[in-house]
# Entry
Amino acid sequence: MEWDIALDPLLSSLGLELYDAEFASGTLNVVVTKAGGVDLDALTKANRTISEWLDANEPIASRYTLDVSSPGLERRLRTPAHFLGAVGDVVTLRELRGEAPTRRLEGTLVAADDQGVTLDDHELGAVTIAYDAIERARTVFEWGATKPVTAKGAKAASTRKKG
# Structure
């Protein structure tokens, strides 16, 4: 089933965007996103809304589980639109190479189109890969160095009355 056709209007009414939807192994996995991130309240509303729609329309004949989540920090990349949205990000992917061993690549995604992607791999440089040769891919969250927070100039969070 084309889940985006059914779920897009439902999620849009909640201020959410469908990132991905896939029915596999008895589970309908729905991944939603929005600018600024998705909180638990938004996920709960999305789950209830989708569940009500599924109950009313019964598009799945067998027993199933509904799982609604956000893409998280390391997003799975499955469609050309996912890859296009990740251009400029660091990604890791497994490339299928026929008889040659599968190889794992990691680097900055520099381009994506309808046929495949170009990755500036950390070791190999620019590598172009067709979508049908990508076993799996995801963005890589890079933890940055953080500076310690100091109390200098901080104000008290509450005030006390004398008395």
Summary: Helices lie at 3-12, 40-57, 80-85.
